[in-house]
Amino acid sequence: MIFFGTPTFRNPATTGVRFVVRLACATVLLLAADLRAAEPALSPEAGFAAPPPEARVRAYWWWLNGNVTKESITRDLEEMAAKGFGGAVIFDANGSAQDGNTPVPHGPTFFSPKWRELYKHTLREAARLGLEISLNIQSGWNLGGPMVTAADAPKKLVWSLETFNGPGPFNRKLPEPPHAKEFYRDIAVIAYPVNPKLNAGDPPVVKNWREKALEKPLSFSAPDTSFLVEDEPAQPGEGTTHAKDVIDLTSRMQTNGTLRWDAPPGRWEILRIGCTLNDHCKVSTSSDGWQGYAIDPFDAGAFHR
Predict the structure, then answer these.
(1) Which residues, 6 or more positions from 280, have their beta carbon under 8 angstroms from its beta carbon?
(2) pTM for the structure as a whole
(3) How far apart are CA 105 and CA 287, in angstroms?
């Protein structure tokens, strides 16, 4: 017998139960080890000719626009089994009309009662044929769907800029940053003094600043990102402002966007910063009926909701 650790018996009434459970666990482990030892070892040649189920090829099984039937499911699975497949992963998705192709008619909407009946039929048939089925968590990708609200969708930062020459009172409504009509939320208002030696038309002193700030996207696969660590040589007095001089004015802005602030001397730039929907905030290539917002990947609460 094998015991894992020394038990501490606090209640005599449960001592026998704990002992039996530990004995049962140890017995199962020993039996499993004996069975593994009894399994004949396959030669590489034999294993390649007749691989075990867990080593067989799996199919990416596209249910284009949900357009499947029980008959087509059975046919496909029987063909997979006949060809030696180990199983398949179901991808309910669309995109069939890309590149000028003819659209595929819409079948049952993903996860609807009719769709779930087709899925259960798939599992029954796969069990009959000795195949294993996996399922993509949704229709299409960029996790989300029709139940996701705009507030839970991916977002980006937006801002508006005002300039003011102090000293003096600033008492006017800040322009609202450009945003999608479905969602906007204020985040912060900050002001910072601008170096009077710099002209408004001077080029940025940070090379490739738009890419470094993620204000401009990189290419689709971005195989070369070395330019992100490149920069121009530092020049004396090139700084526009210093972090220690930035003033947080968020609490001074009213709900209607009006800012009330007594500005110190100097030339000031005022940023009203908010967030709105990202440019790519929707589920991609989903079947009909599953279109909607994706889930904000930086918001754990959005995932749970």
Answers:
(1) 142, 154, 294
(2) 0.72
(3) 10
